[in-house]
Amino acid sequence: MPHNGSRYYLHAYGTASVESLNNGNFELDDSSRSGRPVEVDLDRLKQLIEDDPRLTTRCLAEKLGCSHTTVETYLNKLGKTWKYGVWIPHKLSAHQLQYRIDIYLDLLTSHRNYE
Length: 115
Known about the structure:
It contains 6 helices and 2 strands; from the N terminus they run αααααββα. It has 115 residues and is mainly alpha-helical. The chain folds into 2 domains: 33 residues, no CATH class; 76 residues, Arc Repressor Mutant, subunit A. It has a two-stranded antiparallel ribbon. β1 and β2 form a beta hairpin. The longest helix has 21 residues. It is flat and about 60 Å long. The termini are far apart. This is Transposase. It comes from Rotaria magnacalcarata. One of its GO terms (cellular component) is nucleus. One of its GO terms (biological process) is DNA double-strand break processing.
């Protein structure tokens, strides 16, 4: 009967990891797996967005040969957000930033007044 440490390891990492260790595989690196590629050509993604900013993540995924969630991840890394049916950079103007600061300060002072 395995001791508590072995049971914990089995519960946390699953039987595949335990079998791998029992077979003498002590590699720490992840082995390659089949499935959809997680790498996306960023230049091609940028070009597709510039050509047609109304493309959905599913259409982009179909063109790039990956999942739509992978496309969403890379679009977020590029600083793009979906607004009004178009992918645009998520940057606020100086006026918008100041407006947000003013609202936050108003909310803080009104909260302090109620305490």
